[in-house]
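All the exercises in this workshop are built on plain-text protein records. Instead of coordinates, the fold is spelled out as a row of discrete tokens. Once this layout is familiar, the rest of the handout is easier to follow. The record below serves as our worked example for the rest of this section.
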Amino acid sequence: MTQGAGQGPVVRTATLRDFRVPPYAQVPVQSQSTSHEYVLAHPEDSVPQAVPVRAAEPGPEPAPEPAAEAEAPNRAAPAVAAEHGATEAAPARPEDSVPQAPPVHPGNAFPDDEPPEGYTPTERDLPVINRGDTVQVTVAPAEQPDPAPEGLGPLCVVGDVHGYLDELVAALTAQGLVDAEGHWSAGNTRLWFLGDFTDRGPDGIGVIDLVMRLSAEAAAAGGYCKALMGNHELLLIGAKRFGDTPVNSGAGTATFQAAWLLNGGQKNDMDRLQDVHLQWMSRLDAVAEEDGHLLMHSDTTAYLDYGTTIEDVNDKVHEIINRNDADECWDLFRKFTKRFAFRDDDGPQAVRELLATYGGGRVVHGHSPIPYLLGEVGTEDADGEAKSEPLVEGPHVYADGLAIAMDGGVTMAGKLLVAQLPLQD
């Protein structure tokens, strides 16, 4: 793991702000099997809400408030060309079975030898969700995906990146999608990113710069590189546009700035965020269908709130973002943070509802880390020793074989996943 160009390995140390969600920030977890919503204390995607102060209840200690307000962005131009990037990559983590990042890649973040103020490292020491009712399976889908249209190459997908640029380049190189210099080398291959490019990791803007450049290079080679909008794209757009403007969270008031900080927002990303990045993120689609695969970021049925066709959903999401209304954008962000709709007993039916509405034979999503879906975060072996092997070896197929999870948990010492579809069951 590297923080950026020319630096030593990151020492992953837990931060309470990331890992212990205060009661006012806990997010309802979507479940089809109960009539009520329940909360989960984990580091992923907390939506702060103002509630009356009350006596402490048993459970994890609440996180302290951020020490200071985020500084105003300095609008430094991002490094978008390879010659402005890193000149040497640090070794990849031993648990990742992918080659090291190439010696040069675009958009590397750190201009100095020290990480920027506000950098939030992450660690494997996270709350365990040991449900006991979710296991990894390899089941063929009920309906095999259609073959690729004539003239188009293989279809590949990338899970959540969260600012880990070196890991992304290494994983793309291992799949033959980019060459040793980080340039597109996959011809007419179709590559989809499932969202969440920034926050938590060291170089979110570098990730966006890379994806933007690969999009142009892939198109020139007869393929394409496209991306979907994740909840962290909505969060970064909101933090930049609305800052500390109060929004109606449904239980009081909240702000995008507070939510961004709580969910691993990096000052270094905000400092380098440019209009071109905001415009690119604002135009991303929320849902796509490729070869019988329904691609979306979040494992939620909240997409159904925005239309009965893929085109309707994408048009509605773009309309909300372009209207620039803080409350509307907050409600969109809040719904895109919902998760685990496909995990419980009613999960297959939830997937079938989406497939019946939008088409396709399988849902492919990011958002919820596979270690959480499997309940394998921070597990120990029979001798009480922490397991050192990767928690994630590849995509997780579940919900009667109808759903594929692609967030390998790179922010928790997991794995950044790149996979070709259809999976070989």
Residues 33 and 344 are 7 Å apart (CA to CA). The radius of gyration is 20 Å.
